[in-house]
Design goal:
Blueprint (H helix, E strand, L loop, with lengths): L1 H8 L40 H5 L3 H19 L4 H8 L4 H9 L1 H9 L1
Length: 112
């Protein structure tokens, strides 16, 4: 009776390796490092304007706005900065530019 369970225990030694997987390449929506001198900064220090955005494809526009917004929102509400940024990215780009230009307007929007 006890021996029947012992047969399954031999397989348990292999279970330790099941959770270990080699690193995988990032998926299509993952953030990739920006090349040096690309003009885009993750720190949020360089200004974003309508002309800069107009020269980019729409997905890259949202990415750039999202990076800038996240940097500012994380100063206001660090715990939920990612969620708030994601919600705000549903807004029109021109509205987002206005929020990035005015800390008071951004702070008010974040508090909503």
């Amino acid at each position: 009776m006890g021996m029947g369970n012992m047969g399954n225990m031999g397989n348990m030694g292999n279970m330790g390796n099941m959770g270990m997987r080699p690193p995988q390449s990032p998926g299509p929506g993952a953030h990739l490092p920006m090349p040096q001198g690309s003009g885009m900064s993750m720190s949020g220090s360089s200004p974003v304007n309508a002309a800069t955005l107009a020269s980019m494809p729409p997905p890259m526009q949202k990415q750039m706005l999202g990076e800038k917004l996240f940097a500012q929102i994380s100063l206001i509400h660090p715990v939920n900065a990612g969620k708030i940024t994601g919600m705000m990215l549903e807004m029109d780009n021109s509205e987002l530019l206005m929020l990035l230009d005015s800390r008071d307007a951004l702070r008010s929007k974040v508090q909503e």
